[in-house]
Hints:
Layout: H1 5-22, H2 27-48, H3 71-102, H4 111-122
Amino acid sequence: MTANLFLLITIGVLTACGVYLLLERVVSKMLLGILLLSNAVNLLILTMGGPDGQPPILGSAETAHEDTADPLAQAMILTAIVITMGLGAFILALAYRAYMLTTTEDVVNDPEDTHIATRREREDPEQ
């Protein structure tokens, strides 16, 4: 099995950019990170699906398994695209709602979480 080096480098760049954007504290950058990461995973699934082949529906009966493309990879990618689109719409709606309430796009720390974190830091773990 051979792999396309250009696609592998593209997958790596998309994954790195997606993780970097996902770690930001701005909702729109998080959304872009999720979309880039999703596209990288889709390209990875397509690359691992094997080389190009004949359409699986038009293959002959005797050589159907030898030179036909695996339709499972395309079906999984299509499902992932639909799920990513729904997730993107949900995150966009959450970002819009948060922007309407706070007029900022930054995600701030919850005061109660900060209080619990400082309380845990004061506790001595050896007692």
